[in-house]
Amino acid sequence: MTDFGKTIIGLLIPLVGTTLGSAMVFFLKKEMGQKLQKALLGFASGVMIAASVWSLLIPSIEMAGEGSTAWVPAVVGFLAGMGFLLVLDTVIPHLHMNSDCPEGKPCGLGDSLMLVLAVTLHNLPEGMAVGVVLAGMLSGGSVITTAGAFALAIGIAIQNFPEGAIISMPLVGKGLSRKKSFLYGFLSGVVEPLGAALMLLLTSFLTPILPYILSFAAGAMIYVVVEELIPEAQAGKHSNIGTIGTALGFALMLVLDVALG
After folding, report:
1. CA triplet 75, 77, 83: central angle to 5 degrees?
2. What is the spatial distance between Cα 42 and Cα 51, in angstroms, rounded to a whole number?
3. Which of 145, 127, 138, 129 lies closest to 62, judged by CA?
4. Does the first or last residue of the chain, that is N or C, have fewer Cβ atoms within 10 Å of its Cβ?
5. Which string of DSSP letters, residue by residue, matches 79-107?
6. CA dist., res. 248 & res. 254, Å (int)
7. Residue 189 and residue 184: Cα distance in Å, rounded?
8. What is the largest CA-CA distance in the chain?
């Protein structure tokens, strides 16, 4: 398979996960139970934490080479990624699940659209991560292999499946039709291949700073985990279910990275 073919497949794999998850709106008659939501949110947290470490931060350190300053790209990029998502989180209007208080700049958008914006904001770092790992694969180095890039894309697609359902089902509960709920869920995932393509484009011009871009994507993903996923998985009763989900997601991503990477 050509590098172009590998890149297109890598870009689309996460979107497939979101699309299939959103399609569950046609098969599930009731809104997801709180326990299942907590388990799935925890699972997504575990996948993203493991992906940030093994697929992004460790390759960033390895690419920086040996020496007492090999940690610099990882730390600088990581903090920059956290700061970037902090700015987006502060500016973009959005509404988290199980919350009645919108965040970001005040606006006149409805709750349904702000829920979609929250998931879109969440999906952006995942797309960035896929794009920068694909860029590392295309750079021809030995740190990020084709299998390693696909392992990250597959891991994100797996956790995107429940996320697609989590965003689409509450929209039905808010009065939207199943078709519209599916469409909104799908559109929330479109930002991933777009973000990945943007990172690919930027990295093609900025190959020397690829270690910084890898850790930047890791910081953005960890921000989402700490700011959104873990608090929602731990809120209220049955917080241990979210913890178990995190462990399973982390273990799955670890297996994928070691087995395929």
Report:
1. 105
2. 14
3. 145
4. N
5. HHHHHHHHHHHHHS-B--TT-SS-BSS--
6. 10
7. 9
8. 58
CA angle 73, 10, 21 (to 5 degrees): 110
More confident residue, 28 or 58: 58
141: phi then psi, degrees, rounded to nearest 5? -75, 175
Q: Residue 126: name the closest of 35, 204, 194, 57 by CA.
A: 194
* φ, ψ at 45 (rounded to 5°): -60, -45
Structure tokens at 226: 């700490």
Looking up tokens 């921000």 gives 223
Burial 167-178 (b: 16+ CB within 10 A, else e): bbbbbbeeebeb
Return the residue matching tokens 């809120």. Answer: 235
Residue 98 has pLDDT above 80, yes or no: no
Query: Which amino acid, residue 64?
Result: A
CA–CA separation, 180 vs 68, rounded Å? 54
Which residues, in sequence order, are CB contacts of 250 under 8 Å at separation 6+?
46, 47, 49, 50
Q: Which amino acid, residue 9? A: I
pTM, two decimals, is 0.85
* Whole-number CA gyration radius for the chain: 18
Q: Is the pLDDT of residue 104 over 90?
A: no
pLDDT confidence of residue 34: 79
Q: How many other CB atoms sit within 10 Å of the CB of residue 62?
A: 17
